Amino acid sequence: DVKVTQSSRYLVKRTGEKVFLECVQDMDHENMFWYRQDPGLGLRLIYFSYDVKMKEKGDIPEGYSVSREKKERFSLILESASTNQTSMYLCATIRGGGGGNTIYFGEGSWLTVV
Amino acid sequence: AQTVTQSQPEMSVQEAETVTLSCTYDTSESDYYLFWYKQPPSRQMILVIRQEAYKQQNATENRFSVNFQKAAKSFSLKISDSQLGDAAMYFCAYRSGGQGAQKLVFGQGTRLTINP
């Protein structure tokens, strides 16, 4: 069965802390994505990666960075967490190739910054 | 850049009745895919239905169907015989058909309530 695992479901962090959100997939997919979900705004793309060590900015990359050292793992990093980064974060993966491939989502990580 | 707009933040319907959720999008591409996703309280995103832009026939999955109007760039979702389990957030999404990372672009979401 397909799996996209976000290891931390619920986190509470203090302002200024460095935060790591991890996403692991077992499907050998080339493409991985980090989205942020906020009420009334839908899902907005933060960063994506189409290969190991490759990354591209999405629509709202400010305050975030990413790391992809291995194909199965895509990490989202908040260098210095701020209260406006309190949100739910969703990881997603797609196999490379045409646009008709199925996208798979993780279960989400709820982050509260106090 | 592509954009997706859902103009109905909330909708409600009586159980067993029919409801239509609206979605419009903007693109200059000719090859793309459109999706409706359901997100129940568990937050797991579930694919409801998808439509290939090159197909004229509207997609259907059991009680779920779409009205795809390519010229108007409209992609509405019709849920027939609404059930309590249909209550969720619904997101409309767009994805380019070209090669590459093919990121999904989402609308703002519509929260659907089913009244018993």
Tags for this model:
heterodimer; A: 114 residues; mainly beta; 7-stranded mixed beta sheet; 4-stranded antiparallel beta sheet; globular; B: 116 residues
Q: Care to give the gist of this entry?
A:
The complex is a heterodimer of chains A (114) and B (116). Helix content of chain A is 0%, strand content 56%. Chain A is mostly beta strands.
Q: How would you describe the overall organization of this protein?
A:
The complex is a heterodimer of chains A (114) and B (116). Helices cover 0% and strands 56% of the residues of chain A. Chain A has 114 residues and is mainly β. In chain A, strands 2, 4, 5, 6, 9, 10 and 11 form a seven-stranded mixed sheet that branches. In chain A, strands 1-3-8-7 form a four-stranded antiparallel sheet, with no helix packed on it. In chain A, a hairpin with a 2-residue loop joins β7 and β8 (73-78). Chain A starts with a strand and ends with a strand. Chain B has strands at residues 3-5, 10-14, 19-21, 24-26, 32-39, 46-52, 60-61, 64-69, 74-79, 88-96, 104-106, 110-115. Helix content of chain B is 0%, strand content 53%. The N and C termini of chain B lie far apart (41 Å). Chain B contains no helices and twelve strands. The relative contact order of chain B is 0.34. Chains A and B meet through β4, β5 and β9 of A and β10 and β11 of B.
The biggest beta sheet of chain B is recorded as: 6 strands, mixed
Please bin the fraction of helical residues of chain A. under 10%
Number of strands of chain B: 12
Distance linking N and C termini of chain B: 41 Å
Distance between the termini of chain A: 37 Å
What is the typical, i.e. mean, pLDDT of chain B? Answer: 93
Structural class of chain B: mainly beta
State the total count of DSSP E strands of chain A. Answer: 11
Q: What Rg of chain B, in angstroms, do the CA atoms define? A: 14 Å
Q: Give average pLDDT of chain A, whole number.
A: 92
**Helix-residue proportion of chain B:** under 10%
Uncertain parts of chain B? none
Q: What is the N-to-C order of secondary-structure elements of chain A (H for helix, E for strand)?
A: EEEEEEEEEEE
